[in-house]
Task: inverse folding
């Protein structure tokens, strides 16, 4: 019977070993890690396998390779944060969703321009309400470029997050998600949906998903109840996946 270790690729184990040395302080910021030849001899593997392991470390932000000089340990970028918008604000509890409306807006060039959909006048808009413990915590409005012949199921509209919707509905490949966080006062309609007082401050999270060449594919604006929703972010999360 094969053990778990034998099932893990050698290049991954090599990367994991070096990662542990970095996190233990054996290898420090700026230290030069062994060469490909040295690592190949140490682990009894080919240079191609070593390169795969080094690539993993570089993708995780643990090392930086300088051509002609080698690979150096880099300091964790603790000022770079990753927000998991899909699981945020839920305290590990299941969120519930209610689809409020779905519309196809035709020939609305001012809205298209405002959203950055240059040259597009037909836009799918949808609004849903997010609940936790039967209390409304956020209102989310999504805007997508209309794609003829690409219908969206109601269950997808109600439960799917913006990146998933964009990926399934657009022909272009999404490559970037820009997020802007701000504060705004609740309108009369928003206050009614969130069961709050009009004019109270609310957290606003705007996402814009782009294809190559900065072409916007979808926009989401989420207005969150100030007492029922919180955003959490983690620094240096990529290396944790290694």
Result:
């Amino acid at each position: 019977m094969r053990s778990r270790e034998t099932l893990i690729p050698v290049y991954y184990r090599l990367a994991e070993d070096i990662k542990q040395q970095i996190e233990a302080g054996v290898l420090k910021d700026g230290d030069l890690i062994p060469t490909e030849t040295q690592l190949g001899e140490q682990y009894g593997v080919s240079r191609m396998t070593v390169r795969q392991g080094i690539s993993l470390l570089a993708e995780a932000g643990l090392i930086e390779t300088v051509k002609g000089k080698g690979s150096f340990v880099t300091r964790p970028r603790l000022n770079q944060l990753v927000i998991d918008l899909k699981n945020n604000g839920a305290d590990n509890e299941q969120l519930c969703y209610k689809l409020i409306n779905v519309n196809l807006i035709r020939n609305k060039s001012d809205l298209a321009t405002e959203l950055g959909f240059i040259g597009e006048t037909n836009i799918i808009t949808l609004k849903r309400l997010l609940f936790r413990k039967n209390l409304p915590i956020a209102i989310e409005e999504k805007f997508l470029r209309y794609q003829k012949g690409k219908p969206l199921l109601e269950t997808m509209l109600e439960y799917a997050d913006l990146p998933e919707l964009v990926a399934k509905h657009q022909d272009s490949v999404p490559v970037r998600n820009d997020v802007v966080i701000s504060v705004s006062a609740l309108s009369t309609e928003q206050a009614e949906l969130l069961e709050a007082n009009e004019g109270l401050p609310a957290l606003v999270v705007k996402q814009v998903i782009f294809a190559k060449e900065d072409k916007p594919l979808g926009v989401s604006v989420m207005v969150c109840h100030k007492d029922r929703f919180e955003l959490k972010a983690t620094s240096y999360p990529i290396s944790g996946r290694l």
About this structure: Residues 136 and 195 are 7 Å apart (CA to CA). The longest strand covers residues 135-145. The chain has a mean pLDDT of 84. The radius of gyration is 23 Å.
